[in-house]
Amino acid sequence: MIKMSEIAELANVSVATVSLALNNKKGVGEETRKSILKIAKEQGYIPPKKNTNERQQLNIQFIVAFNDKVLNKDYRTQPFFSSLIDIIINYTHHESINFSVSSINSNDLVDEINNFTNNDYYDGTIILSTNLSNKSVEGCIENSYKPVVFLDCIHKTAEANIVGINNWHGVHLAINHLIENGHENIGYVQSDIRIKNFEERQNAFEEYIEKYELHFDKQNIITLSPNKINAQDDNAKQIKNITNVPTAFFCENDTLAISFIKSLKKMGYDIPNDISVIGFDNIRESTVISPELTTISVDQEHFVTTAIEQLLFSIENPNKIRHTYINCALSNRESVKNLN
User: Fold this and answer.
1) Is 0.85 topped by the overall pTM?
2) How many CA atoms lie within 13 Å of 140's alpha carbon, on the beta-carbon side?
3) At CA 316, angle to CA 110 and CA 314, rounded to 5?
4) Which CATH superfamily is domain 167-298 in?
5) How far is the first Cα of the chain from the last one, in angstroms, to the nearest whole number?
6) How far apart are the C-alpha atoms of 152 and 77, rounded to whole Å?
7) How far apart are CA 62 and CA 124, in angstroms?
8) Which of 184, 296, 300, 329 could form a disulfide with 280 if both were Cys (CB 3.0 to 4.6 A apart)?
9) What mean pLDDT is predicted for residues 216-240?
10) Looking at residue 278, what DSSP letter applies?
11) How far is Cα 127 from Cα 63, in angstroms, rounded to an integer?
């Protein structure tokens, strides 16, 4: 039996366009629709059986690409990613969209992506791509049969639909907030696992430190695990090695910031009177810690909605791609002291 991908090849269109035409959905020109239907009839295409009570809708698969780095197989216990997935599952803005959520090791994704996308049931795919390398993103593009949007991805040159975080904007907000509160000697808390988001945040931090002529000593970099929120013993050793303790620390994400605060408090520091701390992501736990964490907020609902809208656009316009980077906002709470 002929597949939709074979019809697409004969009609010289995308599989998504074939799907829209065969399911009598919008987004296909009338002449193109007629051509696709003619080819399908001539080739004896038999559509998959559907429940007669089922409402016509777009079926989108959401793939979590995990590995042993920041987005690992226990992603459901990781606040930032768990929240993103909950938004996807509970997404009700478009009643005509049905989501299916699955996960796969990012090391296997390139080899498996054609099996995911060469499925007549699905109209498109969103991949949570936090850990994906540029090579893997490019491999997925080459092997995908239908439109794909890479969420939480940084690949400035990829011919792909990408939705990411504007890390430079977020770091700029953080540095400005510290400057406005009189902080000039600033330390840095980094993850011991490096991903592109963290690398961008570090590059932005170093550039803005230089631009605003602030004091930063690379010996004042604290390295912690991003996968657990607790007082990490190694943190105390690193803090004790600092000779000129900064008045404030910027942290690459909130998990690091909360662990850092717990470690400092365990050592007897008063936060923010002794040391101020600012995080990044605005996870739910940032309001539970005492003091509540001042952080850079990523609007997760806007993040997810943008990816969905970008996929819908790509389904109807398969030859057009977009790179979208979501700006951030400051969530000003209690962990930064005003020194002025």
Assistant:
1) no
2) 30
3) 35
4) Response regulator (3.40.50.2300)
5) 74
6) 18
7) 9
8) 296
9) 80
10) E
11) 5
CATH topology of 58-165+300-326 equal to that of 167-298? yes
CB atoms within 10 A of CB 284: 11
What is the pLDDT, as a whole number, of residue 115? Answer: 79
What whole-number distance in Å separates Cα of residue 43 and Cα of residue 322?
34
pLDDT band, residue 36 (cuts 50/70/90): confident
C-alpha pair distances (Å), 246 with each of 113, 183, 220, 266, 293: 47, 9, 8, 18, 18
Q: What is the pLDDT of residues 94-144, one digit of tens each?
A: 557 788 888 899 989 988 888 777 777 888 999 999 988 899 999 998 888
Which residue is listed with tokens 């316009």? 317
Q: Is the peptide bond before 48 cis (omega within 30 degrees of 0)?
A: no
Q: How far, in Å, are 8, 208, 246 from residue 310 at the CA level?
A: 22, 31, 42
Return the domain boundaries, the chain. Answer: 1-56, 58-165+300-326, 167-298
As a residue count, the chain comes to 340
**Mean pLDDT, to the nearest integer, of 255-273?**
93
Query: Can you give the three-state secondary structure of 309-329, one letter per residue?
Result: HHHHHHHHCCCCCCEEEECCE
Q: What is the pLDDT of residue 197?
A: 94
* Mean pLDDT computed over 14-30: 72
Question: DSSP alpha helices (H): ranges in the chain?
Answer: 4-11, 15-22, 30-42, 79-89, 106-117, 134-143, 167-180, 196-211, 233-240, 254-266, 300-316
- Write down the CATH number for the domain with range 58-165+300-326: 3.40.50.2300
